[in-house]
Structure formats: structure tokens, C-alpha cells
Design goal:
Number of domains: 1
CATH class: Mainly Alpha
Number of helices: 7
CATH architecture: Up-down Bundle
Order of helices and strands: HHHHHHH
Radius of gyration: 15 Å
Strand content: under 5%
Structural class: mainly alpha
Largest sheet: none
């Protein structure tokens, strides 16, 4: 499969992605645990059908020491016993915020309250920012049909 646009070689895309990446760097450096960030990035990418981001974030998570079983179970996190309650709350918020158009009222209060039980205000800001940012990246990559499979961990660091 070929991409509709080459985002890696387009100067305008480079300027745009620089700002997206800067927001991601602020979030990556936040107090939100790295393992949680990796799970959120992967789950949103799975929901959105973004092969490029699913490839990238699963490989980056492995490189960061994430367990292969946990990564394999992200799509079935509700039935899996390998996630902490805080991670489960973050995954639930990720699903609701990613599928925001599917719910007339947006993210339900109980989902938000559950996430707030495990994450302080700064972590919640980071979590919401992470969900928004990965959804934007997913939409870019899905729209241009960015091929998956060639990413190497850390190549955009």
C-alpha cells in the first residue's frame, strides 16, 4: 500500500507535525506513568484502525520494557487481569473519548469520575491531551493511508 501523501517529505506536513510532536513531548514528560501512556496510545490507535500508529506504539512499548502479554490484551482489557485499576480507568476514558461521536452526551460522568479516582489533575490533563493528540495523529495517518510495518523504535525521537 502506498500513502496518498508523503508526510515524511512534505515541508508543510513537517511544520504541522512538529507542533503535534511538541505537544506529545510535554505529555510524555508528565507525571502520567509511561506504561499508561503506551497503553492509551495503542488502544486509541486500535480503535481508529491506524496501522501505522498501532505498529509504532506497540514497538515503542516493547522497547520501553512493556510485557508482550499486556500488549496483546489491550484490545480486550475489560476481560484481562493484567492491568491495574488506574490503567483500566485510563483505557476506559480512552475508549469513550476516542468514540465521542458515538455517545450523544460525550464522555459519561462515571467514566470521568473513575479516571479521577486514580489520576491527579495534572495527570488527567496529560491523559486527555494524550487521547486528543493520538486521535489527531490517527486521523492524519488513516486519511493519507500511511503504511504500517516499517517503523523502528525511537526513530522519531
Amino acid at each position: 500500500m502506498d500513502a496518498r501523501l508523503n508526510l515524511m517529505d512534505n515541508a508543510f506536513a513537517g511544520r504541522l507535525l512538529k507542533h503535534f510532536t511538541s505537544a506529545g513531548k510535554v505529555i510524555a514528560d508528565s507525571a502520567l506513568p509511561q506504561a499508561t501512556q503506551n497503553l492509551v496510545l495503542l488502544r486509541a490507535s486500535q480503535i481508529n484502525g491506524c496501522g501505522f500508529c498501532t505498529d509504532m506504539h506497540s514497538k515503542d512499548a516493547v522497547a520501553a520494557g512493556e510485557d508482550a502479554v499486556r500488549l496483546a490484551l489491550v484490545a480486550a482489557w475489560r476481560e484481562a487481569t493484567v492491568f491495574t485499576e488506574a490503567e483500566r480507568a485510563a483505557l476506559e476514558l480512552t475508549e469513550e473519548a476516542t468514540r465521542i461521536a458515538d455517545a450523544a452526551g460525550g464522555v459519561p460522568d462515571d467514566v470521568w469520575e473513575n479516571a479521577a479516582k486514580y489520576h491527579d489533575e495534572d495527570q488527567l490533563v496529560a491523559l486527555v491531551g494524550l487521547i486528543a493528540t493520538i486521535n489527531a495523529f490517527n486521523r492524519l495517518n488513516v486519511t493519507v493511508r500511511q503504511p504500517a510495518g516499517w517503523y523502528q523504535p525511537g526513530m522519531f525521537a
